[in-house]
Design a protein that fits this description.
The complex is a heterodimer of chains A (520) and B (369). With 520 residues, chain A is α/β, with parallel strands linked by helices. In chain A, 32% of the residues lie in helices and 23% in strands. The longest helix of chain A has 16 residues. Chain B has 16 helices and four strands. The longest helix of chain B is centred in the C-terminal third of the chain and has 27 residues. Classes of the chains: A alpha/beta (520), B mainly alpha (369). Chains A and B meet through helix 10, helix 11 and strand 18 of A and helix 10 and helix 11 of B.
Chain lengths: 520, 369
Amino acid sequence: MSSPLSGGSSVAPGTPLVPVLEALDISKQFYGIKALSNVAVQIYQGEILAIIGENGAGKSTLMKVLAGVHQPDSGQVRINGAAVNFYSPSDAMNHGISLIHQELNLADNLTIADNLFLGRELLWAGPLKLLDRKAMLKLGAKFLARVGLNVDPSVLVGSLPPGQKQLVEIARSLSLNGRILIMDEPTSSLSQKESDQLVEVIKELSSEGVSVLYISHRLGEVKRVAHRVVGLRDGRNAGTLATHEISHDAMVRMMVGRDLEKFSKPMALDQSAKVRLELQQFKFIGGTPLGVTFQLKAGEILGMAGLVGAGRTELAETLFGIRPSQGGKAILDGENFLPRSPVDAIAAGLLLVPEDRRHHGLILLQSIKHNLSLPNLKTISRFFLVDPFKESKLSSDSIQRLGIKTTNANKLAGLLSGGNQQKVVLAKWLAVGPKVLILDEPTRGVDVGAKAEIYELIRHLASLGVAILMISSDMEEVIRLSQRVIVLHEGNLQGELSGDDINEESVMLLATGSKEVNVK
Amino acid sequence: MIRIFGILVVVFTLYALLMMSDPQARSLENHINLERRIGEWGVLTLGVGFVIITGGIDLSIGSVVCLAAVGFGLFLENGFNPYIGAVLVLIVSAFIGWIHGVLITKGNLQPFIVTLCGLFIYRGLAQLLTLIKFKELGQKFSQGWDTPGRVLRDSSRDVGIGDRQDLDAFLFLQRGNLPLGDWLGLPDAIGPWLNIPMPLVLLFFLAIIATVFLHQSVFGRYLYALGFNEQAAKYAGIRTDKYKTIAYILCSTLAGLGGILFLLKVRSASPSNAGSWFELYAITGAVLGGFSLRGGEGMVVGILLGTAILPLLRSFVIFAGIPSDLEFTVIGLALLLGTVADEIVRRQTGTRLFERIAGFFIKQKKSVT
């Protein structure tokens, strides 16, 4: 292999060609699902290596293996050429590797200095183990200066903006003698300015010889900061780009690059169908001041693609009345639609199958029957007393109609498989009677067989005239089912695709923030 | 259901122990006392049960009992019609519950804190009420503030029902009984045992209503659903705030009813100690009756049984010859022991002690799958 840093980098000449950290042939399974198969990655001293891939490509798993959070099923991790075994994150830390999580691991109620030295506080000499705060503040300030953070180390971490917290986390890694930083989506919750500052700090650290493994969805950022890019796809290596090869298109091609022809085509859309839901500059928390504008017709399946954190769930929950709307207009069946709670949305016929099934979709500790009847209780009761016969009929009808596999309607919903749980969520809304059905990641955690059944059901519902807005990070799903796709990027409706223009590459380009897609 | 059976076994065991402790314990008088106490506390336990199902807690019950008892006493002292007085007391109690509900749901405050503050505030209010000289205050209002005489007493005092003669119906509710034995014309050896004290009758009456509400009505379903998983209930279109608030209103209203019963029982109420500890008796009863403080679990039958445990234990302490100064210690240790045993059994077998005991009796009956 030639020098990875050809094409000009900030690393001094004479860098040894033994990688500081190397992963060889790493495989990792979770409950029989392959998260990583034979993945190899090398990172050299002072290098900034970006790892890119779609949601679920295995990036986070790889990072966790390298940081000792997970142990690989097979394969080897080497440091400076010597094989090592990490049994815990602290093992990895002792070798100078530290992982900076998406969710920061800082105690908001402690000061910066307390956080920096948490668990290895500096003490006064003597048997009383008294804290030497002065020394910690002084040393803490030194580490903060290295990450360009000009803040008093006696300030509470909770009072810092997210960008500065990120820097504190990096400072802590450095104070732990970190030589290899692994950063999982470090800029996902930062503003543009904060991201820029962080990128500068990363570059600075790299020039000091610290190696940085960097996961990001923001391809523009990757292009600016990375010396080299490794792509992952479906848990495998999808290629490597050297500095001079890094371009937006090349990265997208590497992330997607799958045979697209195997998908069946979605059903044809009835162009004369009436518009069920129309959004006009609809604004929501997590969106942009421009709002989003689109139409959804009866019988249409509209895919909503985007990366994690693009604001899709926020938009769905705003339409369902969970989150307050920030202005703009929504029209449902010709009438102004302004839900202030799910009660309003349900009354208007707009229903949501939430992303987090276990916390929002179902009551796991209650029976299937009670879950099915919960939003339908008023229709099966008289004088506020639930009619047990009507309730049993409702649940047995639902179980039969959707093919929910269970021995008994009184079984706890939490005991069902993911696919059957999702069918229960769908069934309870079908009994209510949807006009517009929003599906947020409808097949997450659902096995292949049940997936096909759920797709069939979605198509069937559309053919009955239900307007379906389907949020999905599963590209195959979006392409297979939707007649039209809208793509969100950082809260903004980046573009709309329909018919033959819907393919992984174009969706990915929009999702990663490209303004234009070359549509033939 | 299997769990309820386990609690039933515990209650009967305790009862058997009590009966064996002393001949006096087997007397009719002791039984009537026990039934009365179960009825009085059960009303409060029933109330807190609604709140516990939502995953909340109400620590203010004892103080609401106190405020209601003192308030009702003051109404009587000042010549109010007792029915109007009782209704006003219940309305104020319901209002207190509404405040709790609003603070917890709209103010996003913790139920523990809100009702803990209530615990102090309502008892303090009761003390303040007994300080006021209403006659003088009335005079000042009508004749101007210059009228001589002070409006406040120097110290709080007990409030009583005095010698009012128009309270027969109320006193019957507290001291009367449902003469079931007499109606059936049973001989003297059995008859009086079936004459059930009114507080217990009242509890049964309320429990039947609560059973319909909790286990058969839409309202009950919503309450359980939001107790198990408030978010999921909200996503299913349930006005969770509204139903939670109703639970607090029911709890405080029943506490108000408990206060009225309290005054009728003792004939007078002292603002400094009337109803103290009652919230803890109520919560203990509900927890022993199978209610989980995490919310979502519990049945009305469990409340009836759980409420019985504390009075039985207290009675046992008295009749087993344990010095009365040790009463609290013994009760506390017994509860602790039971909880520890429950936890040990659960860790080893995955089922709770009550369920184990019940399983022993039901003999291998397969649980429903």
